[in-house]
Amino acid sequence: MKKLLIRISATFIISIMLIIKLSANTYFVSPQGSDSNPGSFSLPFQSIKKAVDVSIAGDTMYVRGGIYSLTSTILISKNGSAENYFHLIAFPGERAKLNFTAQTMGGSNRGILLTGNYWHIEGFDVYGAGDNGLKIEGGNYNSIVNCAFYRNRDSGVQMGNGASYNEVINCDSYLNADPTDYGDADGFAAKLNVGVENYFYGCRAWKNCDDGWDGYMRDANNASTILENCWAFENGYLEDGSDPGAQANGNGFKMGGSDDKTLSHHYTLTNCLAFNNKAKGFDQNSNMGSMKLYNCTGYNNLGGNYVIYKTLAEGNELIIKNCLALGDAGNIADFAIQVNNSWLPPYLVSEDDFISINAIEAYGARNPDGSLPNISYMHITEGSDLIDAGVDLGLFFNGLAPDLGCFETDYGNPETVNYRETDREKSRCFPNPASENIYIEFSSDSQSDYSINILDLSGRIIIRKDFFQMESGKIKAEISLPELIPGMYLYQVKIRNEILGTGKFILEDTR
Questions:
Q1: How far apart are alpha carbons 92 and 109 in whole angstroms?
Q2: Mean per-residue pLDDT for 245-253?
Q3: Which of 230, 339, 428, 458 has the most CB within a 10 Å radius?
Q4: What pLDDT digit, counting tens, does each position of 61-73 carry?
């Protein structure tokens, strides 16, 4: 696959300026600015707080690259709406680094405390906070994109107080540790009294002293969390590789648990990878909720790759399909609904089934569009019987059927790609990456009531198309993209208000 190349040029900056003039208000922040300035491109503010204070729903705040040395929490409490998000974004091509190392450890000394709704926050490093790097406390419908949270003195990202419908996209959380007991610093922690439908996509959590993801519940029940294409590795250790003790749990994905072992946290994991964690890869931890694992991979987790064996609350279910383990699978309940997993007959998995079992690539830099690095680690080698061995779950796959595990191979005929399938509809988007146009096809018996939406990663609809060509039982649409900024986008195929197909594509910079 081609890599996205973003080059900041005078032409590009001018195009940015034309785009941002269309928004309600646009403000700029720079380490070299002043809060007595008007916040313009040439006379920026100095602090993010100032930009947040003066903004209203629909405004965009561009934060220039550089280091911002901070001691006070950035409080974000204003509410936007589905039509008018607040946008707090690092300036394109730059990285804003928020340094909180001077904060006192513990208490309420977070880096960012987000209690508001409908915020899009993108392109920040948050490190050294006295507690969480980012705490979403009751905030809903927020989108956190392409951020990194590290060396904070509690969890990198934590959600609580009913926080619901938040998205964390293409973010990293690592090296977070809370001395002296080292018992609470996770990579991502949607836990305790968190709400429903919080979604993580393309995120990595490594070498956090407690867990990669922690879903432990207290004072709330029936939370739900969705993870897709996420990696958790080497959790339970300190930065120097040492083990801080028994309080540092070291699970990859801890899906729940509670003090009295009665609470439910409903977890769905798709295409997720857990390896080299001090304890378990995928851990139930007394969770009473439903757990659904699709096309996940576990390897070399010292407490077991999949440890999910305790009885669930009435009406809940454990489903594991198309999953893969190198080594022993772990401890999985007899009541689990299992389909086409690698530890079931007729498969015998060995190191020879993989291109590489050297994990060094997993630490690599993300691609320019923010997506996870392209690696060969735990990818199935050509000729393995794990290829096309899965059952169709309506997810992306190449070939005749899905492969087992979290990585799909692309050996063979590219014409057999299934970009998204359901029982009712098939859709595909090409070329991908795209340069000026994309083409979307989907099966249909009629042309009426269909629409296609192009969305950015915050979920905003930026292009809508209602006119199509009908040919051989397929609706075909050509969509021009010349005004969009290079990056990753989503598409939706809809009939009236029902989504029939979804997918992602990359728009690359070809100038």
A1: 29
A2: 96
A3: 230
A4: 999 999 999 999 9
